[in-house]
């Protein structure tokens, strides 16, 4: 059963500290929502988890086994079990939708093409793109591209899915189609870490919400507590500002 | 002032001219391939090399793209013999065009290398692609798609540029046209037929390259 524990994690871009001792965890089938102002370090946590940024200190435990990010084998293991979806979709522009979804399982994991394609078709049908298999990313809307990116991440059968502001680059009318996809995943028991500014959505799907500021977790708790009865001044400030409009 | 066109007089020379056109194509193709090789090394050096390598490549590019190609070939053909290097006119033209192409293609390819999206690389990395797999599946197809149209354009320009070889007595299409003109004095007929041959060659090449680019690489190219 997937379980992720982050203990006193620190990370920096050069001399700029972006994570200053983060301790959070997410259990099997749970959804952890990460909220907070821009620059608070939410996305950086996800980047550290998938090995795009080396942590400066602290520990990450995946299923109770420590991940050493300086060790290539450990990074490979973590990338086998975690999948990330980015704000800018980051699809491979030179491949059609089906190839985008199948390339990693076929070329990297060495699974048979037929079996992977069958899975991919099902995944793409699930995200509502069964009729776009042969389309290229530049022929799709942002919302469609993002749903392809979600299918691509799921094709690797990850234990935990990381979502990094996946609706932030979308036109408002395209946001719901992407969030609906995530709602389905949450209801199926997918373990997820979600960074988002869609507060209503975070509140609805999260089992637990962490409010972050300046590289620290200011407050963590059940969605109702964070949004309705925050105990920290900083959280109250943020929530009142963001829920006012 | 009346002039009667007499294309009949140059019909017999048509195979002779077509033979010259083949030599034009050969020069353009060889110089382009050589230039592509130099350009790939140059672009790799400018993208990944150290400061000294970058400086040296810059000197090469600046000199070769800011002097007339004719002067460059003159230099090879007339100046090098003074230091004991004697090149035939064909070889001088070929080397001159290759070096010139190398400089332009260095710049064109560098732009292609730089257009690789960092975000796609990150996605590939987190999906578990090794560095080599990233190059094979993400970088190369992207670079090929981005570079194919400008490289095709340069190839067409080089095909026309081969006419410079006539100045050095190389018997490619323009050189042979000179000769036919000298024998028949039918300038209008000779040079209009020659021009037509160049048009056919370049239009055909443009169309073929555009089809290849669109079918294989999804490059945005117009077929004529």
Give a structural overview:
The complex is a heterodimer of chains A (245) and B (224). Chain A has 245 residues and is α/β, with parallel strands linked by helices. Chain A has one domain: P-loop containing nucleotide triphosphate hydrolases (Rossmann fold, 3-Layer(aba) Sandwich), CATH 3.40.50. Chain A is built from 9 helices and 10 strands. Chain A has a 6-stranded mixed β-sheet, sandwiched between helices. Chain A has a 4-stranded antiparallel β-sheet with strand order 2-1-4-5, covered by helices on one side. In chain A, α3 crosses α4. The longest helix of chain A is centred in the last third of the chain and has 16 residues, at 172-187. Chain A is globular and about 55 Å long. Chain A starts with a strand and ends with a helix. In chain B, 76% of the residues lie in helices and 0% in strands. Chain B has 224 residues and is an all-alpha fold. Chain B has a single domain (13-217), classed as MetI-like fold. In chain B, α1 (14-48) crosses α4 (89-114) and α1 (14-48) runs antiparallel to α6 (131-161). The radius of gyration of chain B is 21 Å and the shape is flat. The mean pLDDT of chain B is 93. Chain B has helices spanning 14-48, 51-65, 69-79, 89-114, 118-126, 131-161, 173-184, 187-217. The two termini of chain B are 38 Å apart. The chains are: A alpha/beta (245), B mainly alpha (224). Chains A and B meet through α2 and α3 of A and α5 and α6 of B.
Q: How much strand content do the residues of chain A show? A: 15-25%
Assign the CATH class of chain B: Mainly Alpha
Question: What is the number of E strands of chain A?
Answer: 10
Look at the structure and give the mean pLDDT of chain A: 93
* Count of discrete domains of chain A: 1
Which CATH architecture of chain B?
Answer: Orthogonal Bundle
Instruction: Say which CATH homologous superfamily of chain B is assigned.
Output: MetI-like
Which two chains touch over the largest interface?
Answer: A-B, 25 and 18 residues
Task: Count up the helices of chain A.
Answer: 9
Low-confidence stretches of chain A: none
SSE class of chain A:
alpha/beta
Oligomer: heterodimer
Report the C-alpha radius of gyration of chain A, rounded.
18 Å
Whole-number mean pLDDT of chain B: 93
Task: List unreliable stretches of 5+ residues of chain B.
Answer: none
Output the CATH homologous superfamily of chain A.
P-loop containing nucleotide triphosphate hydrolases
Largest sheet of chain A: 6 strands, mixed
| Distinct helical segment count of chain B | 8
Cα shape of chain B: flat
Structural class of chain B: mainly alpha
Through-space gap between termini of chain B: 38 Å
